[in-house]
């Protein structure tokens, strides 16, 4: 994220431009250019006073730059010209925490006066994150679980090397979750799990299923782990027995909705999503049942591989799995005991948890904002829509979900130059709409995203208007070109003299 240069009168922090692997890289660069957002920040001695740094424009400019760097597609699409953020709780916490990490990491190698400067930045970011946390209304009281299955799970996990500052709790109306057993500050580890305890494809390939599964072409790793868990759930001698014993008998996701629930959803996009998902799973099951299960009953006992058992395993992996990057840089879908108990929130405590530390060979879940003792500790499942959460997780968030969008397909006429090259990108954007009350723009009174409005205006152009629009765009380019060339000449001359 950053390059640091030490100066005699301070520290120069240079935020790196968006990585080319980022699908929004060019769009983010355009925002930096259009809004004149600088990525270079000079922290001087005069900025040392933490209150001054916290309240001044220097820190605000750093946060604005970080917000843009952390944008996802939905946040970018609904970003308006007069909106500098916050763009969403996720984006804000990512931005604040990224600057905190910069200060925290640089402090380790800082020396002299730069220690004071970076410490001031570090303190200011902790204060900013504290202010962000105060806006979280999701403080639901929980009661520590006293069930035998939960106690055995934690005892087993501890014996296997899990280090945790969390306990299992019951939250009325919400079910199970994780509660902090001590105050967790920004950057603390909430839970640390050995790699050996993480269930993934490698776990399956150590079992007797390997000789059957490795000879089947085209069988996805996710399917392999799903099939293994269907049998392992019933295996009394399983090394993961305490984990499987702690899992619910039913997950109650949208995939398990009965006729009455589905009838209530008639005419909604959610119903279509659930039906499509179930049809896909049913077809997958029928294919596996007629081939793999029927030919290898000794490996796939019929009583463990019914449709209901298959659906349960699908719900388990949909609602509890995590994407984890292993030391060999392979990204694998995994079940992570204990960590899977953390619930999702728009105001999560844990944002980053996807990479195994090669030094400790463990998966560490750091908190990006404080979590007080007795408070539920949340994890971010990602920028998911409510329909996705209901279908695959079985719950709905309280309040407005900024990722609840409806895609809109528009057949737009292209504005072309004489060489038939597109002069604008309105036809290349995936358009969407969401609740207009979420718009913070003072310029746009409709509450609709400006990118959608621009596309709609283009869509309703008649032939004469379209021709005139193309001419205006060409003339704009011609008028702008001399000024642009002079600007490049000015930059070149300055570089020569410098």
Automatic annotation (TrEMBL):
Domain of life (superkingdom): Eukaryota
Keywords: Membrane, Transmembrane, Transmembrane helix
Keyword Transmembrane among record annotations: yes
Molecular function GO labels: protein-lysine N-methyltransferase activity
The keyword Zinc is assigned to this record: no
Transmembrane segments: 477-497
Name this protein carries in UniProt: SET domain-containing protein
Species annotation: Taxus chinensis
């Amino acid at each position: 994220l950053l390059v640091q240069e030490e100066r005699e009168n301070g520290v120069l922090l240079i935020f790196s431009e968006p990585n080319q692997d980022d699908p929004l890289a060019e769009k983010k660069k355009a925002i930096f250019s259009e809004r004149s957002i600088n990525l270079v920040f000079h922290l001087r001695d005069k900025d040392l006073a933490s209150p001054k740094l916290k309240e001044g424009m220097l820190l605000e400019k750093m946060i604005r730059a970080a917000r843009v760097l952390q944008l996802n597609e939905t946040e970018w699409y609904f970003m308006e010209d007069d909106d500098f953020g916050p763009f969403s709780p996720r984006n804000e916490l990512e931005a604040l925490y990224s600057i905190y990490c910069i200060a925290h990491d640089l402090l380790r190698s800082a020396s002299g006066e730069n220690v004071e400067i970076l410490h001031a930045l570090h303190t200011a970011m902790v204060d900013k994150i504290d202010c962000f946390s105060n806006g979280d209304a999701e403080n639901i009281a929980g009661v520590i679980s006293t069930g035998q299955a939960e106690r055995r799970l934690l005892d087993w996990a501890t014996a296997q090397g899990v280090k945790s500052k969390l306990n299992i709790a019951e939250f009325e109306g919400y079910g199970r979750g994780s509660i902090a057993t001590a105050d967790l500050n920004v950057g603390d580890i909430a839970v640390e799990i050995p790699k050996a305890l993480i269930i993934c494809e490698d776990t399956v390939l150590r079992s007797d299923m390997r000789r059957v599964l490795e000879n089947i072409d085209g069988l996805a790793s996710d399917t392999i782990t799903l099939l293994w868990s269907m049998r392992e759930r019933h295996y009394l001698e399983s090394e993961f027995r305490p984990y499987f014993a702690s899992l619910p008998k039913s997950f109650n996701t949208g995939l398990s909705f009965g006729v009455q629930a589905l009838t209530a959803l008639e005419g909604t996009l959610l119903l279509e999503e659930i039906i499509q998902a179930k049809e896909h799973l049913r077809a997958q099951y029928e294919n596996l049942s007629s081939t793999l299960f029927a030919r290898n009953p000794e490996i796939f006992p019929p009583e463990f591989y019914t449709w209901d058992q298959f659906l349960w395993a699908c719900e388990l992996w949909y609602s509890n799995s995590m994407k984890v990057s292993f030391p060999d840089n392979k990204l694998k879908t995994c079940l992570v005991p204990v960590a899977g108990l953390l619930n999702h929130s728009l105001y999560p405590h844990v944002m980053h948890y996807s990479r195994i530390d090669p030094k400790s060979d463990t998966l560490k879940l750091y908190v990006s904002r404080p979590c007080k003792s007795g408070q539920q500790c949340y994890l971010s499942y990602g920028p998911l829509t409510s329909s996705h959460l209901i279908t695959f997780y079985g719950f709905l968030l309280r309040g407005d979900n900024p990722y609840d969008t409806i895609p809109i397909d528009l057949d737009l006429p292209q504005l072309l130059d004489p060489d038939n090259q597109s002069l604008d990108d309105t036809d290349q954007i995936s358009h969407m709409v969401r609740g207009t009350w979420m718009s913070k723009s003072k310029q746009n009174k409709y509450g609709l995203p400006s990118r959608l409005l621009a596309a709609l205006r283009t869509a309703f152009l008649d032939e004469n208007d379209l021709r005139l629009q193309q001419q205006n765009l060409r003339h704009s380019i011609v008028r702008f070109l001399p000024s642009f060339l002079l600007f490049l000449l000015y930059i070149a001359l300055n570089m020569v003299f410098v």
